[in-house]
Amino acid sequence: MKNPSFIKTITNHSLTTFGRIILSINMLAVIFTALRLAKIIDWSWWLILLPIWGPAAYFTLVIGGCTICMTAAAILNHIDKPKTPTNKKEAQ
């Protein structure tokens, strides 16, 4: 029996390093959740779902850092521009 085409598509593509990291983090969250529901571990739900919040926190920090840098660059660019007169009367 031949494999369906979607299985060939999935197996032919390799995951990037970032994709593997995200997959590993999600699998860790699933394992922690299963252990909590099976009452094998007695951790807080915040601690169990922490692997899911890690990438979200990283993304938020990166976007926040980029926003701060872009705002600072715009302010410094505005400050460094020489003031030019808008009409000839001000120039004289």
Q: How is this structure best summarized?
A:
The protein has 92 residues and is mostly helical. It contains five helices and no strands. The longest helix is centred in the last third of the chain and has 31 residues, at 50-80.
Terminal-residue CA separation: 89 Å
Low-pLDDT parts are none
Helical content stands at: over 70%
- General form: elongated
Tag the structure with descriptive keywords.
mainly alpha, 5 helices, 92 residues
Give your account of this protein's structure.
The protein has a domain at 20-80. The chain has 92 residues and is mostly helical. It has 5 helices and no strands. α2 packs across α4 (50-80). The mean pLDDT is 80. The protein has helices at residues 5-12, 17-37, 45-48, 50-80, 88-91. Helices cover 74% and strands 0% of the residues.
List the topology elements.
Elements: H1 5-12, H2 17-37, H3 45-48, H4 50-80, H5 88-91
Helix pairs in contact: 2-4
